[in-house]
């Protein structure tokens, strides 16, 4: 037997042994026998690297070479899930889905693993890329680290092209063994997240990550007809499928039969058993060998999934049942009404301060009048408050009615800001007055905000000052505003006025995709704007022309844009007020065409991860400093973690610096940073302090 043949035979035998152990849970050979075979393969590949196979089992141990995790665009939708918080809400969603589909459906119920979402891309049966979820459209290529997970197939038994979604996680028992080694990491999910981003895959291999796969995307014409067939085919291809699967159909017998025919473990149930099943899952949650944070219900029929489609944020054919959110009990002191930049009215409960989910909560959303009526909520009631999705505080239930005789709260019929009569649009009330002061403040503050045009010195208080003094009535007025007329107003000095002028001037250099995201068009946030630009709408004129033609298809040709989103964008771009705003901004000199800049900077920050804290003399806003880092090959992050290599510190830096010092992160001052990027004091442009006298 020649060397190549022996390497092939050893590789095949070890692949089968790894699959048996890590996927099927069996051990055909002893550890001693396995190690002997593995060591022989390592020796032969070292002596004859030309015969190493792309799916060699030796790749599981990783490499000491450094990886920079390039960005990769997903070829499938990688979205979040809509959420429900009770079995009744899930059942209601299932019923509505059947009504919408105009026929009987079946639903799969799967554990929502608390891990890291991953997409495995196979080309001709070989693992080509493993990509993180990222923003749902673009993720990071972490293939070298994912190869170290033994349950991830490196080669499929068929030479097919396939994308597979899964959840990478760290078992609880393994986390307990590693806790002393990683004392700064709080839970298994965080350690799993850090591991998939290790720069050296040999280090990733030291953490025993695992994966459950739950969705497959075949090429057109080869896709299975339902979700159970997807899972069955994935299992036959060697992927690890979670055995805690339940299928809900019109009868228990039908559901069990389909699972048996597919060769899948799991439970078969009828729809009326859903509540009981979710109670059982919740009870066994603590005893599972891995963390879960909910359950996922999916429509099984693929033709219905295709018909239902997607929103910008989630598929319409799946919903996540979240386990009970953190709750607290408190009293409603008052209800206030907020007016958003679009005129939408939102009632807010003013609460007696209460601790909830690690923070103090004083306010909670009440959504709309219908929600208040459902709760029968009145001022003075004692209520339970939860954090929806563990983030947004909301009043969940009235626990005890008030003793003051207060009736259910009713939103006043007029706008609290301008007095206009409110209009009902769907489930919400709106103020129809486009000149409503709160709408004007909201619109302009949104435009100048850090995540939009980033006019740091013109925050909400500054906007309020400009509006109250009738200097600004709409966004374009910022570019014609006579800021000098603020002279003499208490607290406004010459320095503040110069900062306002500088912020407006600098905003003229913002790229088109930033300008587009700042207009406040429906469905067009920062990600939406980038999607439109990448999809061919790289100028304002192209957008306006498509809107004028009512060319819905021009938008829906972009995979992430649905018909409803296209209609909303078109209608907004045809609105006379929006058109006037756009033309005035064009006249002001804003960037209305996307320009891709050539980068000639030396990549001196390659493989470095930078964070920034404090305020700076030469970088206002401070995000400009991070752009300098990125131009030179570095990556910027918003918080200091074990992956951070450098922290740029300005005036006022606090907790980030403390954390950086604890982790041994390199601290860089502004002067040192200027030296690194090739600037000195003589070359610096004159800039004002980032903090004004008043704002």
Quick overview:
The protein is an alpha+beta fold.
What order do the helices and strands come in, and which of them pair?
Elements: H1 3-22, H2 31-47, E1 71-73, E2 82-84, H3 87-101, E3 107-113, E4 116-123, E5 126-132, E6 138-140, H4 143-146, E7 162-169, H5 172-178, H6 188-195, H7 201-204, E8 210-218, H8 227-236, E9 245-249, H9 252-262, E10 267-270, H10 274-284, E11 292-299, H11 302-308, E12 318-322, E13 327-339, E14 345-356, E15 359-365, H12 369-375, E16 382-388, E17 392-400, E18 423-425, E19 428-430, H13 437-448, H14 460-468, H15 494-507, H16 512-518, H17 526-534, H18 540-548, H19 552-556, H20 563-574, H21 576-588, E20 609-613, H22 623-631, E21 635-636, E22 646-649, H23 655-663, E23 666-669, H24 670-676
Parallel strand pairs: 2-12, 9-10, 20-21, 20-22, 22-23
Antiparallel strand pairs: 1-6, 3-9, 3-11, 4-5, 4-7, 7-8, 11-12, 13-14, 13-16, 14-15, 16-17, 18-19
């Amino acid at each position: 037997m020649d060397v190549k043949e022996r390497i092939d035979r050893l590789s095949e035998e070890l692949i089968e042994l790894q699959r048996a152990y890590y996927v099927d849970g069996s051990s055909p050979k002893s550890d001693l026998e396995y190690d002997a075979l593995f060591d022989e393969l390592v020796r032969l590949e070292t002596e004859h690297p030309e015969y190493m196979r792309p799916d060699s089992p030796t790749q599981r141990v990783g490499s000491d070479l450094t990886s920079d995790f390039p960005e990769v665009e997903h070829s499938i939708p990688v979205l979040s899930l809509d959420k429900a918080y009770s079995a009744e809400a899930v059942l209601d969603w299932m019923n509505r889905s059947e009504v919408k589909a105009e026929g009987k459906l079946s639903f799969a119920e799967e554990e929502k693993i608390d891990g890291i979402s991953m997409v495995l891309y196979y080309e001709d049966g070989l693992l080509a890329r493993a990509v993180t979820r990222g923003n749902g459209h673009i993720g990071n290529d972490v293939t070298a680290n994912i190869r170290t997970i033994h349950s991830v197939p490196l080669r499929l038994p068929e030479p097919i092209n396939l994308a597979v979604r899964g959840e990478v996680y760290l078992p609880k028992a393994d986390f307990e063994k590693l806790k002393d080694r990683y004392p700064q990491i709080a839970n298994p999910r965080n350690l799993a997240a850090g591991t998939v981003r290790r720069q050296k895959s040999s280090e990733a291999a030291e953490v025993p990550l695992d994966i459950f796969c739950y969705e497959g995307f075949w090429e057109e014409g080869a896709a299975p007809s339902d979700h159970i067939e997807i899972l069955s085919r994935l299992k036959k291809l060697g992927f690890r499928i979670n055995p805690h699967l339940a299928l809900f159909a019109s009868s228990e017998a039908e559901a069990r039969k389909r699972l048996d025919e597919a060769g899948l473990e799991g439970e078969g149930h009828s729809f009326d058993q859903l509540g009981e099943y979710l109670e059982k899952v919740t009870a066994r949650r603590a005893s599972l060998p891995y963390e879960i944070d909910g359950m996922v219900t999916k429509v099984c029929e693929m033709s219905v999934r295709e018909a239902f489609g997607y929103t910008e944020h989630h598929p319409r054919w799946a919903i996540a049942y979240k386990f009970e959110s953190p709750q607290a009990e408190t009293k409603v002191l008052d209800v206030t009404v907020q007016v958003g930049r679009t005129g939408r009215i939102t009632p807010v409960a003013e609460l007696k301060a209460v601790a909830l989910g690690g923070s103090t909560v004083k306010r909670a959303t009440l959504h709309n009048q219908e929600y208040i009526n459902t709760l029968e909520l009145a001022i003075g009631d004692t209520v339970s408050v939860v954090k929806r999705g563990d983030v947004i505080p909301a009043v969940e239930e009235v626990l005890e009615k008030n003793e003051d005789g207060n009736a259910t709260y009713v939103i006043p019929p007029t706008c609290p800001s301008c007095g206009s009569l409110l209009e009902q649009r769907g489930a919400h009330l709106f103020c129809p007055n486009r000149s409503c002061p709160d709408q004007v403040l909201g619109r302009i503050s949104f435009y100048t905000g850090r995540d939009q045009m980033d006019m740091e010195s013109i925050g909400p208080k500054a906007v309020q000052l400009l509006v109250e003094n009738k200097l600004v009535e709409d966004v374009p007025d910022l570019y014609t505003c006579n800021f000098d007329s603020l002279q003499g107003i208490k607290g406004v000095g010459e320095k503040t006025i110069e900062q306002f002028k500088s912020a407006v001037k600098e905003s003229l250099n913002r790229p088109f995709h930033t300008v587009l995201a700042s207009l406040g068009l429906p469905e067009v946030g920062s990600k939406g704007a980038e999607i439109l630009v990448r999809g061919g709408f790289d100028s304002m004129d192209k957008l306006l022309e498509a809107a004028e033609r009512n060319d819905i298809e021009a938008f829906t040709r972009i995979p992430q844009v649905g018909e409803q989103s296209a209609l909303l964008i078109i209608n907004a771009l045809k609105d006379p007020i929006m058109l006037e705003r756009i033309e005035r901004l064009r006249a002001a000199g804003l960037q209305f065409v996307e320009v891709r800049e050539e980068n000639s900077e030396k990549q001196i920050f390659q493989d470095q991860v930078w964070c920034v804290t404090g305020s700076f003399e030469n970088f206002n806003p401070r995000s400009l400093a991070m752009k300098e880092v990125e131009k030179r090959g570095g990556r910027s992050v918003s918080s200091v973690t074990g992956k951070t290599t450098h922290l740029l510190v300005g005036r006022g830096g606090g907790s980030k610096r403390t954390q950086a010092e604890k982790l041994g992160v390199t601290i860089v001052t502004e002067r040192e940073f200027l030296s690194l990027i090739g600037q000195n004091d003589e070359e610096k442009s004159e800039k004002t302090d980032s903090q004004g006298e008043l704002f």
